[in-house]
């Protein structure tokens, strides 16, 4: 499902920074993987590469068998839209949209009919126990509730997601017995280790 082969990422400036050096990784359907390490160890860089937000300096990344190297920006956008769900550290909810509208927005980009979008968005918010907050704005929610809206938005991809990714303190832990729209999906999460930096 997610495959990295000898992936490296360098940032050039006055001093070259090697953020990732020949990383090999395989994540299969149904696996949950946590990336743990101190600030600056390359967790976010790796997630950005897997999510198609950046491109490696060397090596190959495949999502559901599709090689990301060499595809154009439009194709990469389609893969991000259809295969990858993001849960950002600061949630990135649109402040003027309700919970329901925040979850529904990416579904509109898939061209779904309005009734299907509404039903799916309500289903996802119910899944994260926010069916009583459908019309609330982000500022009317607690931090944990905002996080759950972001999780619901990332789950929009079911029934055929390639990946759900979480970054930083928003890492979503999936436990045995939790409801999940697609238990086959692979999930990756990054967080600081015991020596975490603020």
Short description:
The chain has 198 residues and is an alpha/beta fold.
How does this model look, in words?
The protein is α/β, with parallel strands linked by helices. The protein has a single domain (about 1-190), classed as P-loop containing nucleotide triphosphate hydrolases (Rossmann fold), CATH 3.40.50. The chain is about 30% helix and about 25% strand. It is built from five helices and eight strands; from the N terminus they run βββαββαβαααββ. It has a four-stranded antiparallel beta sheet with strand order 2-1-4-5, covered by helices on one side. The chain has a four-stranded parallel beta sheet with strand order 3-8-7-6, sandwiched between helices. Helix 3 (about 100-110) crosses helix 4 and helix 4 packs across helix 5 (about 145-155). The longest helix is centred in the middle third of the chain and has 14 residues, at about 115-125. The protein is globular, with a radius of gyration of 17 Å. The relative contact order is 0.20.
Strand order of the largest sheet: 2-1-4-5
Content-based structural category: alpha/beta
Give the proportion of residues in helices: 25-40%
Number of structurally distinct domains: 1
The ordered string of helix (H) and strand (E) elements is EEEHEEHEHHHEE
Q: Radius of gyration, rounded? A: 17 Å
**Count of helical regions:** 5
Number of strands: 8
The CATH H-level superfamily is P-loop containing nucleotide triphosphate hydrolases
Beta strand %: 15-25%
How many angstroms does the end-to-end distance come to?
32 Å
Mean pLDDT: 80
């Amino acid at each position: 499902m997610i495959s990295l082969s000898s992936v490296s990422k360098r940032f050039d400036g006055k001093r070259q920074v090697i953020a990732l050096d020949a990383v090999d990784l395989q994540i299969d359907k149904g696996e949950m993987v946590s990336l743990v390490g101190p600030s600056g160890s390359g967790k976010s860089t790796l997630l950005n590469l897997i999510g198609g937000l950046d491109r490696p300096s060397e090596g190959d990344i495949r999502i559901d068998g599709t090689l990301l190297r060499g595809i154009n920006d439009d194709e990469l956008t389609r893969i991000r839209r259809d295969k990858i769900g993001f849960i950002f550290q600061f949630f990135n909810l649109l402040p003027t949209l309700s919970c329901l509208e925040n979850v529904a927005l990416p579904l509109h980009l898939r061209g779904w009919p309005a009734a299907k979008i509404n039903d799916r968005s309500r289903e996802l918010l119910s899944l994260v126990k926010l069916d009583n907050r459908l019309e609330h704005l982000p500022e009317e929610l607690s931090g944990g509730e905002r996080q759950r809206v972001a999780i619901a938005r990332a789950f929009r991809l079911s029934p055929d997601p390639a990946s759900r990714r979480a970054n930083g303190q928003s890492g979503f832990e999936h436990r045995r017995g939790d409801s999940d729209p697609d238990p086959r999906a692979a999930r990756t999460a990054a967080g600081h280790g015991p020596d975490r930096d603020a």
